[in-house]
Amino acid sequence: MSMQTNIIIAGVGGQGTVLASKLVARAAMDAGLRVRTSETIGMAQRGGSVVSHVRVSDAPIASPLMAPGMADVLIGFEPGEAVRSLAFLRPGGTVVTNAQPVAPVAISPASAAYSGQAMLERLDGCGARLAVIDGASICAEIGSLKVLNVALLGAAAGLGALGFSLDQFETAIRESVRERFVDMNIRALHAGARSASA
């Protein structure tokens, strides 16, 4: 029987969803597995939705895109985007999401504040294994807002949801990230893993 893991990574433009999918792909290739990825990007430069499909297998993969109900793991960089992609998750799958919302570009400062709480409640009631990560605290600990993506990968890896160890992701980071950013991304990876297990 072949091994296959299907992962959806959902966020908004600027949060690093594409880099996160590349790190998963690198870890998979380093492990000798097949991987196919695809991004759906909507106004990413303006904070629009970005959804990455990442499919990993030890057998040929017909398409990089998943149909609804196929994803084993959903990583949400923003709670509303996690809910938006929830239809891709299979029953009993795993959701790892950031607790902090990012207000959609359509919401003006004068409108009602978007707290994300309703989205987190929707995720809590969806029947999936759910881990809510305090991404803001991790970013503050590391000293950069740019490490949220790697922290959430670390959380998913720490839960065993991705099929790759933290050491494998460390290697992928060293291979994929500019040298001056390697250390802080590795620290974010481990902070995310600790957060998921707390």
Automatic annotation (TrEMBL):
Keywords for this protein: Oxidoreductase, Pyruvate
Protein's name according to its UniProt entry: Indolepyruvate oxidoreductase subunit IorB
Residue ranges occupied by any Pyruvate/ketoisovalerate oxidoreductase catalytic domain in the UniProt entry: 13-193
Pfam families: POR
GO molecular-function terms, A-Z: oxidoreductase activity, acting on the aldehyde or oxo group of donors
InterPro entries, A to Z: IorB_Oxidoreductase, Pyrv/ketoisovalerate_OxRed_cat, Pyrv_flavodox_OxRed_cen
PANTHER family reported in the protein's UniProt record: INDOLEPYRUVATE OXIDOREDUCTASE SUBUNIT IORB (PTHR43854:SF1)
Organism listed in the record: Imhoffiella purpurea
